[in-house]
């Protein structure tokens, strides 16, 4: 079951990257906030249909849970807006790896301290190694995309200067 959850998380990540790339293009055409609004509107409609047709009855409603838990819904707004802006400027790969780096860093803090009602999973050398590897990946992906975005005239002058 854990392997299935990992596979589903990878698929979810793939969909987020696709959403970011599509949202970035849409945002450059219609505006950042309109793109974010469309994302949330369509997402709300699809989720409402899924709830209506597939969600089993729960013991609690959204009105019964601790109110701080409802604040999690607000965390998606900055993500969507930032990705629509970032993908236009730095590309889907760099923006996505940067988001994953932020997710990894924050999730390790949440795990380590057991914040937000989660079970504590203490920080380790292996986890530190994962953060470092992802930071290195971010550096290399950013560096390679930055090199490709150099205008043609500059590339030509750099190659002629070498010769």
Automatic annotation (TrEMBL):
Note whether DNA-binding occurs among the keywords. Answer: no
Q: Which residues cross the membrane?
A: 36-54, 75-101, 121-142
State if Phosphoprotein is listed as a keyword.
Answer: no
* A Gene Ontology term for the protein's cellular component: plasma membrane
Kindly give the Pfam families that the UniProt entry links to this protein.
Answer: DMT_YdcZ (PF04657)
The alphabetical list of record keywords is: Membrane, Transmembrane, Transmembrane helix
Please identify the protein, giving its name as recorded. Answer: EamA-like transporter family protein
Q: Taxonomic classification, please?
A: Bacteria, Pseudomonadati, Pseudomonadota, Gammaproteobacteria, Enterobacterales
């Amino acid at each position: 079951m854990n392997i299935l959850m990992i596979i589903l998380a990878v698929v979810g990540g793939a969909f987020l990257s696709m959403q970011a790339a599509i949202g970035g293009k849409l945002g450059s055409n219609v505006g950042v906030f309109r793109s974010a609004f469309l994302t949330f509107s369509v997402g709300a409609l699809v989720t409402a249909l899924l709830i209506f047709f597939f969600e089993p009855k729960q013991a609690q409603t959204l009105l019964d849970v601790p109110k701080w838990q409802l604040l999690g819904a607000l965390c998606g707004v900055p993500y969507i807006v930032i990705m629509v802006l970032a993908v236009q400027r730095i590309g889907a790969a760099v923006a996505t790896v940067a988001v994953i780096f932020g997710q990894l860093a924050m999730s390790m803090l949440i795990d380590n301290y057991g914040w937000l009602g989660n079970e504590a999973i203490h920080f380790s050398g292996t986890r530190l190694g994962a953060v470092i590897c992802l930071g290195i990946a971010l550096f290399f992906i950013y560096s390679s995309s930055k090199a490709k975005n150099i205008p043609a005239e500059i590339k030509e002058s750099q190659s002629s200067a070498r010769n």
